[in-house]
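HUMAN: Mind sharing a backbone?

ASSISTANT:
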Amino acid sequence: MPKKALIAVGGNSLIRAGERGTIDEQLANAHATCKAIAQMIKQGWDVVITHGNGPQAGAALLRSERAAREVYTHTLDMCVATTQSEIGYILQRALESELKQLGINKLVATLPTMVEVDSSDVAFQKPSKPIGPFYSLEVAEEKKRLLGWDIVEDASRGYRRVVASPAPVNVLQFDVIRKIVDLGIITIALGGGGIPVIKKGRNEIIGSEAVIDKDRSSALLALMLDVDLFLISTDTDQVYTNYNKDSQEGIPNATADEMEELLKDGHFAPGSMGPKVESVIDFIRNGGQRAIITSYENLLEALKGKAGTHVTG
């Protein structure tokens, strides 16, 4: 049987620091990421690809807000839905091209994916996830008054809207994803952590103004699919203690317990590496066998055990 991996692609793989995020830039970056993934597929891996959507969702919200007098606006769940298709299209184009260059004739499918969240999740009482553009104090207070937004201050750049980031409960398209994977089709799913939805009664699903952490929902899907490897692609070659300090030190191998101790000691920032480490710990603790955190440039070396941070039970 082929080995199965879930690869969670970080937002930096499409829009990098200093870039405007044009479609041409995103396509070029997607090709660089998919070149490594294609090589992994050549080695015999079946892969499911998930991805972030932070910059794209922010842009979608901004477009919706600025065009509100001329066209209908989008709720946050609709922005996630549209960016799933947008980014899936970019990744699918790039991956199909890279596979053909290697002489691999495999199908690639992009699947819009809803993820159930719990309406009683404490995250809805304490919104903490910044989204969208920065505003002046005056504009931010107007948004709060008119739209009921929760607003936080960024001392150096202004004010931003914050929304809930609840835990993922269930991947609603799981059965479809599993069937596609079993057919040997490369699957791009769960973009942006999934479209956040809440089940109401037995038959109704409603959208939620929330953002689900991409790595947390990816860990859930990886467990549901019983993958051999959960791989998080980020902007560093491995996880570090004391990151960006003179005393920083790479972590080539660790157990979930060891990573949790380092997390408790404050080595991994909540807004960057923290959720990735938490997701890997959850994956291993709930039955996953192997997880790697690395950059796409080091993906192939990481599969050989020569790069990345490898976490086991």
